[in-house]
Amino acid sequence: MTGLAALTTAPEGAVLAAEDLSMFGTDPWWLVVVKAVFCFAFLMVTVLFSIVWERKVVAWMQLRIGPNRNGPWGMLQSLADGIKLMLKEDLIVKRADKAVYILAPIVAAIPAFMAIAVIPFGPADNQVSIFGHRTTMQLTDLPIAMLYILAVASVGIYGLVLAGWSSGSTYPLLGGLRSCAQMISYEIAMGAAFASVFLYSGSMSTSAIVEAQADRWFVVLLPVSFIIYIITMVGETNRAPFDMPESEGDLVGGFNTEYSSIKFAMFMLAEYVNMVTVSAVSVTLFLGGWRAPYPVSTFWEGANQGWWPMLWFVLKVQLLLFFFIWLRGTLPRVRYDQLMKLGWKVLIPVSVVWLMLVATVRALRNEGYDFSRIVLYVGAAVIAVLLISFVVDMFRDRKNRTEAEAAGPEPAFDPMAGGFPVPPLPGQTLPPVPRRTPRRERELVVSGGPDTQSDGNASDGKEAGGV
């Protein structure tokens, strides 16, 4: 109810304020180049650090040493790995579609870098000096910046799908198809989580969304949207426990199985750059962006001035990157049917219902209703929906039981009917596991006795030699 109360008590200006983007697009060309190079360097340095940090944190979780050879404390291990991959032999599969095979890693990597262009590293009204020229700490901004981020994130999946198809092999094709299905499943819930932020902030501009969090971060106002986005960003980046497209247990390596050298490194680079990008988007939408945390901002007036906002932004991004690492070292990989069930049957319905709730609360607030009346209306609607669903489920279960009794007992489920083990479908149960014979009831086999024979009397010998 805290988030609902905050939604209803927010000022009207938070919804009606129009973004002011007049400070963008006025920089000279050389300053635009400098800022673009900085965004690229920020992503590359963060990726190099994240790889080493992930290996060290997972090693710490698993009581291992981790990288400690290249550079001080092993901090140059990721750079050494990149050089090693570039020096390896670059192979092209004989059956591959060469043009698409070479283009796929590029298509996967380039869109990963593009989303950072509209992420604010600092306030738009607090310009910093770069070579004597005052400019904002953001490359550019758009009235539809979040739609731009969704668009470039959707393009990146083409690289994985094309890589799996162009390799001319079965396992990469399955990995590419898994990537496509996973992206479709989780992109819908992600878009609904974004829409809740749009409704509350009244803008799709990233700088305006951060400005709308001046009084309270959206992680407090929209906790359900934040949780949904955290889950979907793990699925979008194909990270554990949702790393089904490159599951080495059943796909050897997934869509990148037939790649080597620099092309394989580009897929790895795209994955980690996407991790940084989705973390930056999460910070911008829900964690106050470049704003200092609550305890710091209360007693230090200059916490959001100068270059300090970039420090808070980087710390928040690193916190979410640690969340990625923590998930990988903690949770096992889920089954593919569980992954699809979570996306289609849980995340999408919850995100749509939450979006309708947020829209209803904002509409009632704009009409001038007070908090108690809004809670009454929303609570009554939720209770009515729960009652209707309960009645529908009760009648459906009764109908299913009647049909099952009329049809008679179902045939037993055989997981090996197709020649290989398959999981049971909904409504099917696995046969009971045969219990092992207790040790005291096991038969004794006498060396040299009839049980050692290879003819048909072996079974008789077992029965006769049993004690």
Automatic annotation (TrEMBL):
One of its GO terms (molecular function) is quinone binding. Its EC number is 7.1.1.-. The keyword Translocase applies. GO terms for cellular component: plasma membrane. InterPro entries: NADH_UbQ_OxRdtase_su1/FPO, NADH_UbQ_OxRdtase_su1_CS. It is found in: Cell membrane; Membrane. NDH-1 shuttles electrons from NADH, via FMN and iron-sulfur (Fe-S) centers, to quinones in the respiratory chain. The immediate electron acceptor for the enzyme in this species is believed to be ubiquinone. Couples the redox reaction to proton translocation (for every two electrons transferred, four hydrogen ions are translocated across the cytoplasmic membrane), and thus conserves the redox energy in a proton gradient. This subunit may bind ubiquinone. PANTHER family: NADH DEHYDROGENASE SUBUNIT 1 (PTHR11432), NADH-UBIQUINONE OXIDOREDUCTASE CHAIN 1 (PTHR11432:SF3). This is NADH-quinone oxidoreductase subunit H. The gene is nuoH.
